[in-house]
Amino acid sequence: MTKLHLAVTALLACSLAAVEALDRDKMLDVVGTVHGNRHIIVHYDDLEEDREERKCYGDFTRDIDPVCGSNGKKYINMSMFNYRKCMIKIQEGTEIQVVDMDFCKDAEMEDMEHIDE
User: How far apart are CA 97 and CA 69, in angstroms?
Assistant: First the structure.
């Protein structure tokens, strides 16, 4: 009997609560305002981004001579740092610089994160 009593109490509490989130007119107002604005234009040219990214490719070396980026990530060598610096500038619009290795003392190599040991 207590389960039934609890269920009835919960049902009653839910039915008496004022829930504005379920008001269809208010939801339609929000959707209409956000999605009905024809002056919002989104332009993305992935071919242009691909062309820009190709400029980042260069001669990569296998030398292990770590460098630290101002983004707190450690790179295996200067050629990999320069590649990632170029890609980050294109993709995120930010520039990174080489900084002292102490800044990255606890960081893993950025280009080794995906490798399971």
Answer: 6
- Which residues, other chains included, contact 95 with Cβ-Cβ below 8 Å and sequence gap of 6+? 85, 88, 89
- Per-residue pLDDT reduced to its tens digit, 79-91: 999 999 999 998 8
Give the residue carrying structure tokens 């956000």. Answer: 34
Question: DSSP for 7-38?
Answer: HHHHHHHHHHS--GGG-HHHHHHHHHHHHS-T
Neighbours of 98 (CB within 10 A): 15
Beta pairing, strands 67-69 & 74-75: antiparallel
* Joined tokens for residue 46: 């992935």
Higher pLDDT, 66 or 42: 66
CA distance 117 to 108: 13
